[in-house]
Design a protein that fits this description.
By secondary structure, the protein is an alpha/beta fold. It has helices spanning about 10-20, 40-55, 65-75, 90-95, 170-180, 185-195, 205-215, 225-235, 270-280, 280-290, 325-335; strands at about 30-35, 55-60, 85, 125-135, 160-165, 200, 220-225, 240, 255-260, 295. The protein folds into 2 domains: about 5-130 and about 255-305, Periplasmic binding protein-like II (D-Maltodextrin-Binding Protein, domain 2), CATH 3.40.190; about 130-255, Periplasmic binding protein-like II (D-Maltodextrin-Binding Protein, domain 2, 3-Layer(aba) Sandwich). About 35% of the residues lie in helices and about 15% in strands. The radius of gyration is 20 Å and the shape is globular.
Length: about 350
């Protein structure tokens, strides 16, 4: 399977990447350098918590997952990063395949369910996000809300459904799950029918949740935490949530993970392992899910939003596709649907 696309950013991107801020920690300070595809404000609370708990200084560089991956590739001979945090498993798996991740030392791995980690444990899922349907309750009564993603090709929803573009990794991962479970022909036909039914493609998931809350589109396909973000920002938003495809013969809701991994040749390996351990400790994981509204993968950490209809990972039917299986299909999905799923 060709994976070249992720690694050909062009000279301009490379120059920008190499011009990013210097990452040298203060002399004499124990430190760890984290490259993160998560928004800085979502990772900052756990970074601050780790610094308080460990006394280790974290240097955080945030950016797009692909740009960070190219930077790690460029720095192969002289690694600058210790830890990479990705938005889905796809980029992390590409790094693993290219030998850019450090094999695990037995810590930070065993407690992660196998479906949420690399076969050799070199990347692990640290939080999850469920793919859901949100709807405007002022426009769609709860009893009439669609119960399946595949209901959205029905003419009754013509011109009423919004989704984020293929530039969003979770849109790619969602289609990879369908492709894996239902096959290429089914997935291509599904996307074609959605477009023919007036599917509106927006730039990102933030636009989707705002458009649904504002009544511009009655239905949105997005991740569960955008529903909570909208309610956090505007508690009176007329939003409902559906965990789709929950019937006995249905595929379940896709779940994708934020991943974390250690760069091969990390300049601060001990600090990197300690940071990884903190991410999946009860304290660190709580900070991750409280700030991001994502789902804890591990037992013992409660998700945010139970009173607003959010369900823990073990309490809804999820699609039986591992993060690895989804990751392997992501380049195929981008090639197949890139022209169809742009704003």
């Amino acid at each position: 399977m060709t994976r070249v696309r992720f690694w050909l950013g062009g000279l301009a991107v490379l120059v920008v990447a190499l011009a990013w801020a210097r990452l040298e920690p203060s002399a004499g300070t124990e430190s760890v350098v984290v490259y993160s595809a998560r928004k800085e404000e979502l990772l900052k609370p756990v970074v601050d918590g780790f610094e308080r708990a460990s006394g280790i200084k974290v240097t955080l560089l945030s950016g797009k997952a692909g740009e960070l991956a190219r930077r790690i590739e460029t720095e192969r001979a002289n690694p600058r990063s210790d830890v990479f945090v990705g938005t889905t498993a796809g980029i992390s798996e590409l790094l693993r395949e290219r030998g850019l991740l450090e094999p695990p030392d037995g810590r930070s791995v065993e407690q992660i369910p196998a479906e949420f980690r690399a076969p050799d444990g070199s990347w692990i899922g640290v939080t999850g996000r469920a793919r859901v349907i949100i709807y405007n309750t002022a426009l769609v009564p709860a009893g009439e809300a669609p119960r399946s993603f595949f209901d959205l090709t029905d003419p009754k929803w013509r011109g009423k459904v919004a989704v984020a573009s293929i530039a969003e990794r979770t849109t790619v991962g969602h289609l990879a799950t369908i492709w894996k479970l239902r096959g290429e022909s089914f997935t291509r036909a599904f996307v074609t029918r959605l477009r023919a039914n007036g599917l509106k493609v927006l730039s990102n998931n933030t636009e989707v949740r705002k458009a649904v809350a504002g009544g511009e589109y009655p239905i949105g396909i997005t991740n569960h935490y955008y529903y909570l973000v909208q309610l956090h920002e505007s508690p009176q938003s007329p939003l409902g949530i559906v965990y789709p495809d929950q019937g006995p013969n249905e595929m379940g809701a896709p779940v994708q993970t934020i991943t974390a991994s250690i760069t091969r040749g990390a300049p601060h390996p001990e600090a990197a392992h300690r940071f990884m351990e903190y991410l999946i400790s009860p304290e660190g994981n709580r900070l991750l899910v409280v700030e991001s509204f994502e789902l804890p993968i591990l037992n013992g950490v409660a998700p945010v939003g139970l009173d607003r209809g959010i369900k823990p990972i073990g309490q809804f039917k999820r699609a039986h596709v591992t993060q690895l299986e989804s990751a392997e299909l992501e380049p195929t999905i981008e090639k197949a649907f890139g022209p169809l799923l742009v704003p």
